[in-house]
Amino acid sequence: MDALGTQLLLEFRDCKSELLNDVSFIRNALVEAALEVGATIVQESFHQFSPYGVTGILAIAESHVCIHTWPEYGYAAVDIFTCGEAFEPRKAAQILIDRFHAKEPSIIELKRGILLQTAS
Amino acid sequence: MDALGTQLLLEFRDCKSELLNDVSFIRNALVEAALEVGATIVQESFHQFSPYGVTGILAIAESHVCIHTWPEYGYAAVDIFTCGEAFEPRKAAQILIDRFHAKEPSIIELKRGILLQTAS
């Protein structure tokens, strides 16, 4: 029973507000995490919202990495979606956890597009 | 107990391969769904991969809408992530289900960034 994609949903809490509102820091963290695991970035989208919050999305050849931050709550939602075996999403997750100094982050791993074998 | 974000994870199966490999159709479907529910598009990223498959990501002021397609399996993974009450993500999901003629789609709704009340 194979799955077409693997998606990690990360909840970062108790992060420093300054980091979560720093679009340059966030862009560098996501780009470096993607490159360190060997992902191929095809497009990037980083936006600073007013008064707080950053959205960052990397479209990668292997699917996407994205983050939405709420600096006022020290919280960020991070998703890492991969297909194939090109890179290990948990490795990218660990890099981001370290970069954001997320305390006790939660990680949910989902399999997307599970292919059921039909009886022949 | 409030949550900062709502995320819908949609699994589309038994879709027509031609639709899932048509980057122009996919772009129009996502953009129209976002606009119909009143989302504000801040950037878009649509890519056709070889030999099959499309990745489409809309960064919206309210978070993101994205799709990854596997035309060879008639499958697409769609995520709709919203914050606040600016629009109803299930309405956007219904528009996309209709546009892709997805049969028996599954929808998982997640709450992201749940804020626990601490005892005073």
What features would you describe in this structure?
Two copies of one chain form a homodimer. By secondary structure, chain A is an alpha+beta fold. Chain A has one domain: S-adenosylmethionine decarboxylase (4-Layer Sandwich). The first copy, chain A, has three helices and six strands. The first copy, chain A, has a six-stranded antiparallel sheet with strand order 2-3-4-5-1-6, with helices on one face. In chain A, helix 2 packs antiparallel against helix 3. The longest helix of chain A is centred in the N-terminal third of the chain and has 14 residues. The two termini of chain A are 15 Å apart. The model of chain A has no long low-confidence stretch (mean pLDDT 94). Chains A and B meet through strand 1, strand 2, strand 3, strand 4 and strand 5 of A and strand 1, strand 2, strand 3, strand 4 and strand 5 of B.
